Amino acid sequence: MNQNKKVFNNVLDLIGNTPLIKLNRMTSGFDGDFYAKVEAFNPGHSSKDRIALHIIEEAERQGILTPGDTIIETTSGNTGFSIAMVSIIKGYECILAVSSKSSADKIDMLKSMGAKVYVCPAHVSADDPRSYYQVAKRLHEEMKGSIYINQYFNQLNVDAHYNSSGPEIWNQTSGKITHLVACSGTGGTISGVGKFLKEKNKDIKIIGVDAFGSVLKKYHETKEFDESEIYPYRIEGLGKNLIPTVTDFDLIDKFVKVTDEDSAHTAREISRTEGLFVGYTSGAAMQALKQLQAEGEFKQGDQVVVIFPDHGSRYMSKIYSDKWMEEQGFFDSKHTATVETIQY
Ligand code: PMP
């Protein structure tokens, strides 16, 4: 993207080159300087714009995809939105197979972006023909001229970050970055950015953020897949119940686990103290910073970059709803603004 341009050819020209914003109030009293890479500044409001654009353009370069073809993925989240956006501009059909657990709002949002949505039963196992994995696979096999993005197992997901977010962070910190703190879902962000940074300076610490209920941290420490680590949790996009092949565990120095509750409160705190309206995993990443500071990870002079993956607007019926917070037992009066209803 050329930020000096007055006019852009289309919305895709605005993907990437997101700002690095100094955290002031959230990190007061911490050792070092802290900066957030705010991915909500992408036109689709998340870091997934980068991978959607890169994977689709790579398929075009390889001649696998030509206008009128179909792009398939299994997600109701940010990746689905970004693929739908790129598909509109480039003239592709977009099919998203999603779980029946997905909120009506999310499904409506994808439909608004022209995607065809298959809602698949959430309660069936991944190898059941009705599961969203199997539905996506079948549609891809049946449809000539289709590609299946498969972000958890597609190396291009990592390459997208190696080519864009990695160099951006290196340049924005003039090479002075000492720590990267990033949530790990597919692992695309941490592996791509981490690889770029370690190639520049192997001493930069790459720290992953994982959820309680996910297997990633334990797998990193033991190289064993421990099913007993798996249980339901509320943060979306962070952690996993399987080992994504795109995650490069060798270049990650360590993982920090965060709770649903701390992450929700911390996201609300970022909005109200820094004026940055961010999503649930941004709260998780910031919560990890707090824990790392308490453990003595940082020292004066350190330059720490934390990635805030998406925008708060996607969580209005979750962490930004007092009712939802209360239902989870997360209520906290400190981060709730007063609303007065005027009676007529
Ligand atoms: N935060 C959110 C909101 C996400 O949707 C994702 C992607 N699953 C992540 C963080 C983690 O990014 P990655 O998949 O690159 O590890």
TrEMBL record:
InterPro entries membership: Cys_Synth/Cystath_Beta-Synth, TrpB-like_PALP, TrpB-like_PALP_sf
Cofactor: pyridoxal 5'-phosphate
Keywords in alphabetical order: Pyridoxal phosphate
Tryptophan synthase beta chain-like PALP domain location: 12-310
Bilayer-crossing regions: none
Annotated Pfam families: PALP
Protein name: PLP-dependent cysteine synthase family protein
The organism of origin for this protein: Geojedonia litorea
